[in-house]
Amino acid sequence: MEKxxxxxxxGYIHTGENPPEICPICGADASFFELVTQDDKAxxxxxxxxxxKPVVAQTDEKAAIRQALYRISYGLYIIxxxxxxxxxxxxxxxxFQITSDPARLAIGINKQNFTHELIQKSGKFGVSVLNQTGxxxxxxxxxxxxxxxxxxxxxxxxxxxxxxILLDDALVTMQAxxxxxMDAGTHTLFLADVTNGEILQxxxxxxxxxxxxxx
Length: 215
Description:
This protein has 215 residues and is of the alpha+beta class. It folds into two domains: 4-70, Rubrerythrin, domain 2 (Single Sheet), CATH 2.20.28.10; 77-214, Pnp Oxidase, Chain A, CATH 2.30.110. It contains five helices and twelve strands.
């Protein structure tokens, strides 16, 4: 039986083994999708029939929390990884600096994604920071699974010292080695040392809000 995934921003339901990397309705990425269980379906069915005020209030509170989280500002990044001769990349909005000395950052990756599998196997990943003309990269690396297609085909890329592929058309790229990881439910938070960095362009980085507004 195929799984069902609910976008926690707009309520869109996706059917498939994995959540879509970007919601086709509101543009939210895979981190905003939750697995719809049988209990959820039964609860939703019951709530649709009920008119009791406490149920409505609870639903409104959940929606408010999700909308509040949605207002947090994010960047958009292409996270890349390779292992055992396989390369992949995905669009992600969870990438942030932890310390400057030593240079450390963290990324959040959905456990269902192919990139997650490659990072866990190799212990390494790359980050390409998109510029404000990078909408096509966000879509290319967000709408399809790397298990099915080669997302790098036809793109200008180079391979870093760690072996990961990096975009040529990016503001900066970084390579990182995983130090630790934390189970965050549907996602894993990877803490990593930045081992290499390069500045390729000048300009402003792509933000999630800018991407949505310019679609």
